[in-house]
Design goal:
5 helices; 81% helix; mainly alpha
Length: 125
Amino acid sequence: MSSLETPLHKVQGLGSAHSGVKHFWRQRVSAVALIPLTVWFAISALGLVGAREASALYFLADPLNAVLMGTFMLISLYHMALGLQEVITDYIPHEGFKLILMVLNTGFAFTVAAACVVALLRIAI
């Protein structure tokens, strides 16, 4: 027996994974948030070209710069993890390998994020 749902009703969901719209918007919002942060990072990095290590540490010890750097790193890692998740979902056909890669992707992002936060806290405190 066929379904009484119309074809339009079937496709009005969130896609096959039922999370496509949320994932799409998270990628776009993180990309937009990265625009001013990337400009700040580029200007800051260019300002530190040729500087000694102590100057860079002094720069990151400033609370505003530490917060901006932490935000830049965390949002960059989140955006990277979302993008890789999309690539894994779209191009890895084997479900078991897909699961392993998703876990590695998430684990890598959390590990690097934790290392960045710890490093910034050690510099700032």
